[in-house]
Structures are given as C-alpha cells and as structure tokens.
Amino acid sequence: GNSVTQMEGPVTLSEEAFLTINCTYTATGYPSLFWYVQYPGEGLQLLLKATKADDKGSNKGFEATYRKETTSFHLEKGSVQVSDSAVYFCALSDQSYQKVTFGTGTKLQVIP
Amino acid sequence: DAGVIQSPRHEVTEMGQEVTLRCKPISGHNSLFWYRQTMMRGLELLIYFNNNVPIDDSGMPEDRFSAKMPNASFSTLKIQPSEPRDSAVYFCASRRGSAYEQYFGPGTRLTVT
After folding, report:
1. Which residues lie below 8 Å from residue B80, measured CB to CB, with a gap of 6+?
2. Is the pLDDT reported for residue B1 higher than 70?
3. Least C-beta-crowded within 10 Å: which of A98, A107, B84, B111?
C-alpha cells in the first residue's frame, strides 16, 4: 500500500532561518502530493500541492517539488516567521487507491 | 463558500452515553472522510465515503462506532456507548475528486468523562 514518511519533530528555528521538512513516499501509479498545515486549535488546511513529476507547488513563501526519481516532496521556506509555527503534514492521493495517506506530521516552532 | 461545517464544536459527555457528530461537506464534493486526532495516535482515518457509499471503514476502531451518509450534503458519526478513550478531536473532510485536495472542517472536540 501507499505510505508517507516525514522527518520527526519538533523542529525549532529562529525567525528568518531556512526551513526544510523532509517527506518521502511510496505509492503505486502517479499520486498527487500535498502539504497541509494545522495551526493550534484548527483543522488542517492545504498549503500547497503538486500533481505530476517535476511540478513545484508554492504558497506563502513555502515551496515543494515533486521528485519522482527520489520519491520525495520536501517542504522548504527561505525565511520563517513566528506565525509559521504549526504542524505540517505531507500527504498523497492516488487515483487507484482513493484513500489519502498522511504522514505523522512535523511540529514547527519558530522563536523570535 | 461556507466550507465544511461540523457540529457540535465541543461535546462533553459521560461514559456510556451515545454521541452523534455531524458534518456538512462542501457542495459538489463527492468524497467525505472522517478522521480522529489525538496526541498519542496522531491523525487516523476512520471511514470514507464516495458518492455517499462507504468505501473503506477499516479504520473504525470497533462496533461502537458507526457512520452514515444518507445524502450528498450530510453525514454522521455515532459512538454508542462512548468511553473515555474515545476522547479526541474528530474531523470531517470533503473533496471534489481523488486528484484534488481535501477541505477539513474545524473539528469536534469530544471529551468523555
């Protein structure tokens, strides 16, 4: 079956630091890949997505590139802010296997 | 667009009582998912529906849990009888198709004492 592996958290960074959260996946076929963000007390919301190899998703300064050769979808941001503190989930959706598979989530804490 | 609507937002009940959580998906979305989130177990998929039909309920923890989707605009998750270990945040999510993102509701925080 499908699976998503994320780096363990929590990740603590100073404001304006560079962020990378690693995500690798196993899937049959050609999945769509997603990053979701969950702020305290809220539901998950889509941060960015990519639907085919070499696509780059981007939003709010975050980026992730769909790398089929390394089965990865790492999340990056050049300069984090305190307001980026949240839990980040990597996920995939495969048309042949309709369930959405989520990673375990990575908690990010940004300190001033 | 109102987004996914869940009710109640908070529920406190005593062990042994029946609990019903409700969800209204976004209009036009054909898939609906119920998740449970706890600190210990993280985000767990309980069940999902496609075109109102349950497709996979393998995540439902036991027979005390049941879910229905009588029409495209409404779903319920019922726990009977409830137990303290059911305390969690329950999320409903919907999406337009398998290549598309899910939209999550705000969640129902359930506390069973």
Report:
1. B18, B19, B64, B66
2. no
3. B84
| Set of chain B residues whose Cβ sits within 8 Å of the Cβ of A100 | 33, 45, 102
Q: Compute the distance between CA of residue B8 and CA of residue A110 in angstroms, rounded to an integer.
A: 32
What pLDDT digit, counting tens, does each position of A5-33 carry? Answer: 998 889 999 999 999 999 999 988 788 99
Question: Which residues have a Cβ under 8 Å from the Cβ of B103 and sit 6 or more positions away?
Answer: A46, B3, B4, B26, B29, B93, B94, B95
Q: Identify whether A10 is preceded by a cis peptide bond (ω within 30 of 0).
A: yes
Residues 30-59 of A with CB under 8 A from B: 32, 34, 36, 42-46, 49, 51
The first and second tokens of residue A39, run together, are 């702020």
Smallest CA–CA distance, residue B97 to chain A, in Å, is: 9
Q: What is the rounded distance in angstroms from the CA atom of residue B106 to the CA atom of residue B5?
A: 7
- The structure tokens 């036991």 sit at B62
Q: Which range (A1-5, A16-20, A91-95, B82-86) has the least confidence?
A: A91-95
**Continuous segment of H or E residues that includes residue B67:** strand B65-71
